[in-house]
Amino acid sequence: MLSLATVSTSISLPYQCSNYASLTDFFRPVTYTGTYCGCDGISATWYRVSGAAGTRIATSPVNTGSCGTSYPAWYNGSLPTTIGTTTSGVACVNVNSNLCDLGYSNGIVLATNCNGFYVFYLPPLTCGCCLCSDYPHYCTV
């Protein structure tokens, strides 16, 4: 007689999967075309996108005028497919059809697969001094 044993495995998720700030802002989705004044307010930490903001940071160039700004920011990198792993990319800002103007970003974005959602380590964006619509914002989907 054959006996079958059940093997249970668990994946240990990294620290950032349970220690993050939330991005829930209504103006963040790429579909939002209104204007939202003010700096992005992002500090260098881990974020989970949820609620009115959607589920993740945009991973392809975003059209000018989206996300409440003329300078939309997005994650230029790959999302990790394996649970518990992290990938890296660059924070890009679309400025006057330059899809990745690095002058508005302080660099590297990290993305972690947390088994059903992603968290992103986001660097702050450089705010302009001029028009309300010139403040860059991270965009979401």
Molecular structure report:
By secondary structure, the chain is an all-beta fold. It has one domain (34-138). Helix content is 0%, strand content 24%. It contains no helices and seven strands. It has strands at 21-23, 45-49, 72-76, 86-93, 108-113, 118-122, 137-138. Strands 1-2-6-5-4-3-7 form a seven-stranded mixed beta sheet, with no helix packed on it. It is elongated and about 65 Å long. The model has no long low-confidence stretch (mean pLDDT 89).
Overview in brief:
The protein is mostly beta strands and 141 residues long. It has strands spanning 21-23, 45-49, 72-76, 86-93, 108-113, 118-122, 137-138.
The chain-level mean pLDDT equals 89
DSSP strand (E) fraction? 15-25%
Helical element count? Answer: 0
Q: What gap, in angstroms, lies between the N and C termini? A: 53 Å
Instruction: Order the strands across the largest sheet as they lie in space.
Output: 1-2-6-5-4-3-7
Domains (count): 1
Helical proportion, percent range: under 10%
**What does the overall shape look like?**
elongated
The count of DSSP E runs of length 2 or more, i.e. the number of strands, is 7
Query: Secondary-structure element sequence?
Result: EEEEEEE
Low-pLDDT stretches are: none
Q: What class do helices, strands and sheet pairing give?
A: mainly beta
**Rg, Å, rounded:** 17 Å
Sheet with the most strands, sense and barrel status: 7 strands, mixed
